[in-house]
Specification:
By secondary structure, this protein is mainly alpha-helical. The chain is built from 18 helices and no strands. The longest helix has 31 residues. The two termini are 41 Å apart.
Length: 396
């Protein structure tokens, strides 16, 4: 069986994504606690791709029309949440802990890549996927998807990176929750300073509560969809012109995808400071775009590419070991407590939806800190991914 009609292809992708999300919401199956719906969406579409369900000209045409257009719309909407004035509520200490986690993860990526490069499938095939993974481990899945166009990411390597992300995230959140009982030993060893933690938590929770009170109307949805699609079209025009101009002065390494991603990221961060950043339904629409983009990307990936996935998971475990060791050293120097280190670590690796899980394991009032740390990661994730891509090419 092969889907030959482009509209049928899109309808099937969206129904599959929606069906899985509905199963999670209404059945409460525990399997979704271990493997989230986003991963099921990717894996099932890979299965259908391997079976040849999407192997037709109509499907290829629909994919070509939608993928980039929705991707840049997603990046723009996602970044509308990233108002740096709200992030200031975290305070310098919390931001430093978050960036410390980002830095130590980056060191793990860079130390491990030349050691594992051959086992992962070779440098030329994998460097961009590893950079995309780092973008995800700073900001979240949307940043990882954004790198698909900004960098020459191989679809097979991307599948393996997603497998790494899923396995390591599941194990990591379990370990962080297990570590809660040992917080006093960590804090004693590093002489942790928690004197201002409650004040930061109160300020962060106040910002999060403001956003929860907003109710989106149909007009808000239509305006936001129209705005994001128009921004996507404009960004691709500007990105193409930027790439041409840079190529004319000898900077051909900045291709159209990279230029467009940088432009739409900067535009999104600027607009987040304007009244556009206060529009309701921003988080919901960015998630819808994310599920659509991930479905499209997965529909071009084959399961045969996952043969090397076990070594990718070993690489991920290596990165996390380096991360823990270095974060302990930094905590000794700056007296960071385990609660905030764990929250920042999961905000990097899991995003704003996951970080509050660990934060509230220590104290329910710390949830807002986790959310804002995740938002900070989303704001800088694309830039971190591009930077990591440039560094990884040194090893080729």
């Amino acid at each position: 069986m092969v889907i030959t009609n482009g509209f049928t292809y899109i309808a099937f992708l969206m129904f599959l994504a929606g069906g899985l999300l509905a199963l999670e919401k209404y059945t409460k199956w525990k399997v979704f606690n271990v493997i989230p719906p986003l991963v099921w969406i990717y894996v099932l579409n890979m299965v259908f791709c391997t079976m040849g369900l999407y192997n037709s000209d109509g499907v290829s045409a629909a994919y070509g029309v939608l993928k980039n257009n929705l991707l840049y719309a997603m990046i723009f909407v996602m970044l509308l949440r990233c108002d740096f004035r709200k992030l200031a509520k975290l305070g310098g200490r919390m931001i430093a802990i978050f960036l410390g986690c980002s830095l130590t993860l980056a060191i793990g990526f860079l130390i491990g890549y030349p050691l594992f490069m051959g086992a992962l499938g070779g440098g030329e095939k994998t460097w961009a996927a590893v950079a995309a993974l780092y973008a995800s481990w700073v900001g979240g899945s949307a940043n990882m998807a954004a790198m698909m166009e900004a960098l020459p990411v191989d679809s097979g390597a991307y599948s393996c990176a997603l497998a790494l992300d899923t396995v390591c995230y599941s194990v990591w959140i379990a370990l962080l929750l297990f570590a809660v009982r040992y917080a006093s030993k960590w804090n004693k060893a590093v002489k942790a300073d928690t004197s201002k933690l409650d004040a930061v938590a109160a300020a962060a929770n106040a910002e999060v509560e403001k956003d929860k009170k907003k109710k989106a109307t149909s007009g808000d949805w239509i305006f936001l969809i129209g705005l994001s699609l128009l921004v996507s079209a404009l960004s691709q025009m500007v990105g193409g012109a930027m790439a041409t101009g840079l190529d004319n002065i000898g900077l051909s390494m900045f291709d159209t995808g990279t230029c467009t991603t940088v432009f739409v990221t900067i535009l999104g961060l600027i607009c987040a400071l304007s009244p556009l950043g206060k529009l309701p339904a921003v988080e919901e629409l960015s998630n819808i775009y994310l599920y659509a983009v991930v479905s499209l990307l997965a529909s071009t990936a084959s399961l045969t590419d996952l043969v090397s996935a076990p070594m990718w998971v070993v690489y991920g475990a290596f990165i996390l070991v380096i991360h823990v060791v270095l974060m302990f050293v930094l905590s000794k120097v700056f007296h960071w407590d385990l609660c905030m280190v764990s929250t920042a670590s999961l905000a990097n690796i899991g995003g704003s939806a996951s970080a509050p899980i660990v934060a509230t394991a220590y104290d329910a009032s710390f949830a807002g800190i986790g959310v804002l740390m995740g938002v900070l990661g989303a704001a800088i994730g694309n830039f971190c991914g591009l930077g990591m891509g440039g560094l990884l090419q040194i090893f080729l």
